[in-house]
Amino acid sequence: MGSVLREWIGFQQFPPATQSKLVELFAKLKEQGVDKLTILVMGKGGVGKSSTVISLFGERVVNISSFQSEGFRPVMVSRNRAGFTLNIIDTPGLVEGGYVSYQALDLIKRFLLNKTIHVLLYVDRLDAYRVDDLDKQIIGAISDSFGKEIWSKSLLVLTHAQLCPPDDLSYDVFCARRSEAVLKTIRMGARIRKRDFEETSISDWGTRAFRISSKDSVIPVGLVENSGRCNKNENDEKILPNGDAWIPSLVKDIIAVATNGKKALLVDEKLVNGSESNDRGKIFIPLILGVQWLLVKWIQREIKKDIAKGGKYF
Ligand SMILES: Nc1nc2c(ncn2[C@@H]2O[C@H](COP(=O)(O)OP(=O)(O)OP(=O)(O)O)[C@@H](O)[C@H]2O)c(=O)[nH]1
Ligand SMILES: [Mg+2]
């Protein structure tokens, strides 16, 4: 279950242009005193969680499956490069037989005991056209398990981003609409107040069209194309249809979330045992016991009264 800290060999596999952008980003992090990032990856089954972990490391560090994987446990992959440690925790899909798998969530939570999560990557697909109640339930279950504060340390990752949008929509508009739909589901599923979660309108989207750029509360969106058929630019970097080299962009977004001033999530015993909500209930236990005692006494008294009346019903 533990992790072995290894040299980040896959780093050398990135094209030089990507390597130098990453070196710069990690150097800035180090300047801020950060030499370790722990990233948690969650989402439905088959959306591309493991593939994204592989893309980020540039190494085949975990298994991917084209078809449903079973019995898979969380796994933490750690790589070290020039004194900087990147930990990424890949997890099993959160849906089992059409329902949210609380068992998977529990397994994840236990795995995370005593770990500090700097960023959550919530992964879904870009090439999906609907969000449904199940999506909302998954978000709700994550919030219940880890507290809704986890969303202030999260990034929405949309995979399969090399697509040709339907219905004559431009790529940017399609991405914006899909992102808005998933973000709205996150806001509703996590029961976050709208004003704490401002969504910008499509027209506000900047040059990197998929970053939601309002004040401090919103969840950024990163686009990912894990396929080996992903287009490349003249520097051999994997690019999206909008020309963006997505690996350095995603790392940049991850670092922005890690350093957004919100508290990282420490998964302690209390969180794992779900005692926070239970503790709140515990103060009512003496009250409930007291009411129960009074009720029993009252019933006993009524029975005695009945008997004293001579059992007129018999
Ligand atoms: N075209 C394309 N295929 C992808 C992408 N990401 C993942 N896939 C494929 O989708 C399938 C599932 O990918 P995984 O990475 O195993 O998905 P997962 O979310 O880890 O799945 P579970 O661990 O079963 O929950 C594999 O066949 C991948 O090759 C992507 O960005 N583009
Ligand atoms: Mg997987």
Automatic annotation (TrEMBL):
Name of a matching Pfam family: AIG1
Protein family (similarity comment): Belongs to the TRAFAC class TrmE-Era-EngA-EngB-Septin-like GTPase superfamily. AIG1/Toc34/Toc159-like paraseptin GTPase family. TOC34 subfamily.
Main localization, broad class: plastid
Subcellular location: Plastid, Chloroplast outer membrane
InterPro entries per the UniProt record, alphabetical: G_AIG1 (IPR006703), GIMA/IAN/Toc (IPR045058), P-loop_NTPase (IPR027417), Toc34 (IPR005688)
GO molecular function: GTP binding; hydrolase activity; identical protein binding; protein-transporting ATPase activity
GO cellular component: chloroplast outer membrane
Domain AIG1-type G, first and last residues per copy: 34-275
Alphabetized UniProt keyword annotations: Chloroplast, GTP-binding, Hydrolase, Membrane, Nucleotide-binding, Plastid, Plastid outer membrane, Protein transport, Transmembrane, Transmembrane helix, Transport
Record PROSITE patterns: G_AIG1
GO terms, biological process: intracellular protein transport
Domain of life of the source: Eukaryota
The name this protein goes by in its record: AIG1-type G domain-containing protein
Coiled coil: none
